[in-house]
Amino acid sequence: MKTQIPDSIKAELPQNTWGKVLGTTPIIMTVIATLLAGIASSEMTHAQYDRSLAAQLQSKAGDQWDYFQAKKLRGSLQQNTLELLEASLAVPELDARTFQTVLAKLHLPAPDETLAALVKAQLPAVPPGPGIAANVQAAVDALATLKPEADVAALLHQVTDADLEAAMTEAKGQALAFDNAVKPVNANFDHLAKILDQPGADRAVVQSFTAAHLRFGAAVYDAQARLNQVVGYIFELQVRKSNASAERHHQRSGRFFYGMLAAQMGVVISTFAIAARQKNLLWSLAAAAGLLAVSFSAWVFLRM
Question: Which of 137, 154, 207, 221 counts the highest number of beta carbons within 10 A?
Answer without folding.
Answer: 221
